[in-house]
Task: structure prediction
Amino acid sequence: DTAVSQTPKYLVTQMGNDKSIKCEQNLGHDTMYWYKQDSKKFLKIMFSYNNKELIINETVPNRFSPKSPDKAHLNLHINSLELGDSAVYFCASSQFPHEQFFGPGTRLTVL
Amino acid sequence: AQSVAQPEDQVNVAEGNPLTVKCTYSVSGNPYLFWYVQYPNRGLQFLLKYITGDNLVKGSYGFEAEFNKSQTSFHLKKPSALVSDSALYFCAVREPGGGNKLTFGTGTQLKVEL
Result:
């Protein structure tokens, strides 16, 4: 059983387009996260939701908008994609204060 | 603000030898500390954590880590390295009362050679 799943796994798109990445967890956790991993493998948190409430919102351009329809889902919508948005995006979940479980990642390439 | 340092970009070790991947941290108060491993084109996998209690923490795949408060360190260790341990290792810290925010180090690439 997949604990944290993301779709799509790969996303190739043109600059200026709008795209979404979906995340689902079946662990019953109360908290979900989005991370960005850049080309140097540096990992940085973008957002965190606890029971559908936004609790962490790092300095991320407002072109990025997370949406949590329920506790098990956290989607990431990106408007007006830029070259610098190319990265691997990871979703994660946890039952606070325990460890986070990560999804397999979505590799976004903006051309 | 909390921070984590992994001073080595890469660690090379021969199979069968002990390995150490270093991590130091900076937080206000007592930290929650974690180690994760990332294999190529995969997500991060949890290895072990320190919240409270014994300073020596045992985790998955034979890894362990020692919490040292005076040196603000949480080094990852394994008595006998395997080629299959070759991967990217991340140390992470969370401040108590800091919500769920986990700050990661820059990662250390471990290469285990025959």
Notes: The mean pLDDT of chain A is 93. DSSP finds no helices and eleven strands in chain A. The longest strand of chain A covers residues 43-50.
